[in-house]
Structures are given as structure tokens and as C-alpha cells.
Amino acid sequence: xxxxxxxxxxxxxxxxxxxxxxxxxxxxxxxxxxxxxxxxxxxxxxxxxxxxxxxxxxxxxxxxxxxxxxxxxxxxxxxxxxxxxxxxxxxxxxxxxxxxxxxxxxxxxxxxxxxxxxxxxxxxxxxxxxxxxxxxxxxxxxxxxxxxxxxxxxxxxxxxxxxxxxxxxxxxxxxxxxxxxxxxxxxxxxxxxxxxxxxxxxxxxxxxxxxxxxxxxxxxxxxxxxxxxxxxxxxxxxxxxxxxxxxxxxxxxxxxxxxxxxxxxxxxxxxxxxxxxxxxxxxxxxxxxxxxxxxxxxxxxxxxxxxxxxxxxxxxxxxxxxxxxxxxxxxxxxxxxxxxxxxxxxxxxxxxxxxxxxxxxxxxxxxxxxxx
Length: 372
Ligand SMILES: Cc1cc2nc3c(=O)[nH]c(=O)nc-3n(C[C@H](O)[C@H](O)[C@H](O)COP(=O)(O)OP(=O)(O)OC[C@H]3O[C@@H](n4cnc5c(N)ncnc54)[C@H](O)[C@@H]3O)c2cc1C
What we know:
By secondary structure, the chain is of the alpha/beta class. 31% of the residues lie in helices and 28% in strands. It is built from nine helices and 19 strands. The longest helix has 26 residues. Bound molecules: flavin-adenine dinucleotide. Flavin-adenine dinucleotide (FAD) binds next to helix 1, strand 2, strand 3, strand 13 and strand 17.
């Protein structure tokens, strides 16, 4: 039995752990520094490319009341206070676009394959070719090491660094009066706001992405936004049908990695630790899931080479990064004439199903080859 050590019980670490545990040829240990069992609400979007992979690890058994199958995406121009168009997702029947609470996904992954037996709550301080070192200087040896410890990984070489994008996200979850199954996207000057349902119980997640100087978060990356009322006008645009009063808002400074890095010396990096990028195409979790599945296929074919994984994934990740950065520019346009052209193009695309399919196809239709 091969002994595999995974650092980080986020989405990438857990999805890989599920595949390896299902296979039964591996003895896996997942090291996590935080208490991942604490209840916490945070929306996450999973596009069809990632859902197809999750289905291979029993996602069909996920409680359907705890997710939302998205029926469409509505675009709004905040400055015109008007809806531009709605992109229907009706054509995504077999592999829908889903949204859910990140914690529910984490719990599902842990419970489906009894990963509680494999997760060890311990902070990793260092790694070398075959060993993981912990805070108390103890050491554990493995045949293969995988690092899935997120964008702020302390285990990468120093030249791989997260860089502040110039944007921060203000995020929260709230309960509304009616259930809707659409994503709403408001585009303003230097900001955009996304609101989507995360279950069938009228719970919604919102993310306001704002251009703003880096705010040093005092008590953690995902801390409660402190001065919400005082800063309300500055950070929160006003909406007729939505108020942010009395909602706990968390600030999430958005970082991106200066380089794609899938590892060295047979230590694999996956997910945000390999390629953290800005979230404006909602592909962070989906790419973490694709990475995990790609690496799993390498491992079962006894392909132990980080360079091969990099070669296999780099074009896909570069394309997603470009699309995410383009989206940010398009969403935040300042000049009227550019916004007018943008709105016209959005209207045109949303009017024809073949155009909707075309603009989404490179992301949604992607399938990882299993005979890499
Ligand atoms: C504002 C915002 C909105 C987003 N919205 C979406 C969305 O709608 N859809 C989507 O697909 N993606 C979204 N993302 C991105 C998504 O959250 C991440 O890309 C995805 O969760 C990456 O998963 P990961 O497992 O690689 O890393 P993480 O989720 O960061 O997990 C890393 C884990 O490693 C642990 N860890 C770290 N260091 C150590 C250590 N030294 N020892 C032990 N454990 C350690 C951490 O505690 C954590 O549990 C968003 C991101 C942002 C910033």
C-alpha cells in the first residue's frame, strides 16, 4: 500500500482524498490546521466541468435540498438601474451548474468516504521530499506528498508569492422571502455584485467585489467586516430590493499567485496553492476539483512527475486566468460607450442558445482525459 500525505483539507485536498480512499490501494493522511467541522456558511459555485468529476465520488447522493440547480444568470447594469438580459442555463440538463454552501460540500466529502479516520488536525510547518514536519518538530514519512494548503501556502519556494489584486470581496449569507434559482450579477463602475441561492431554503450568498486598497484583516482572512455601517456608503452600492443592514459581512482581500506552480522534487501542489487566481469566473473550486482528478489519474498510472502535471494543466489554467481577468474588466467598465457596447453584446449572446453554449463551452464542456 502506498503511503500518501496530503496537506490541507480544503476542496482540492478532500476531493483527492476521496478518490484515493475509494481506490483502496492507498494509505492516506490529510493534515489540516483549522477546525473544519465548525459550522460556517459560504457560497460556492460548481460548474458542470467540476460536477462531472464530483459525480465519480458519489455526488448524486448529496441532499438535493442543500443545493441549487441554477436555471439562469441575469445581468444588470447598476448605473442604468436596469436588467440587461438573462442567460438561460436550461440546456445544462444532465450536468447542471450548481451552487451550495461550501461547508456542506466539505462535510459531504468527509462523510462519504469516512475521511474523519484520515484527517489529522495538525499544522504542517515544513516538508521535504518524503517527510512532513509539524509544529512540535515531529516528522512523518510518506511515499508521496501532496500540498493543497491554499493560496497562502507557506510550503512553496519563496519565489512563488500571492499578490494583492487591487480588489477585495465583501461576502455574506442571508435569508430572503422567496426562492429563486437564478444568479444575479450587477455590474457597476469599479465593482460588481453577485447574488445566488445556496440551497432550497431561501438562503442566498452575495459577493461584492470592489476596487479598494488592501485592508489588513486583523483576526484572519475570513474575518467579520468590522465597521459596516460607517463604511456602508463607500463599500456598498444601494439596491432597491436588497439591504445589507444587519448582515454579517466578511472581507476577503483577493490575491492571485505570481506564477503557476505544480510542485518540484515529486512534491505535488494542487488547487489554490498551485494557481490561486481572481474569482470572477467562479472557477476556483472547479479548478481545484479538476486538479485533484488529474493528479489522481497520474498517481494510479504510477506517473510521478510534477513537470508532467504542470504540462498537462498549464494551458487550461492559463485560459481560466485570462477569462477571469477579462471578466473583471468587462464587469467594471467606467465609460458609457463601452458599457453600452458591452450591454448590447450581452443581450445578443443571451438571445440565442447556440451563442450561450459557445461562450460557455470551453469551460463547461471540458473533460479530463483519463488515459493521460
Ligand atoms: C471572494 C471569493 C469568492 C469565491 N467564490 C468562488 C465560487 O463561487 N466558486 C468557486 O469555484 N470558487 C470560488 N472561490 C475560490 C475557491 O474558494 C478556492 O479557489 C477553492 O476553495 C480552493 O480550494 P483549495 O482546497 O485549493 O484551497 P483552500 O480552500 O484554501 O484550502 C486549503 C486548506 O489548507 C489548510 N492549510 C493551510 N495551511 C496549512 C498548513 N500549514 N497545515 C495544515 N493545513 C493547512 C487551510 O486551513 C485550508 O483548510 C472564491 C474565492 C474568493 C477569494
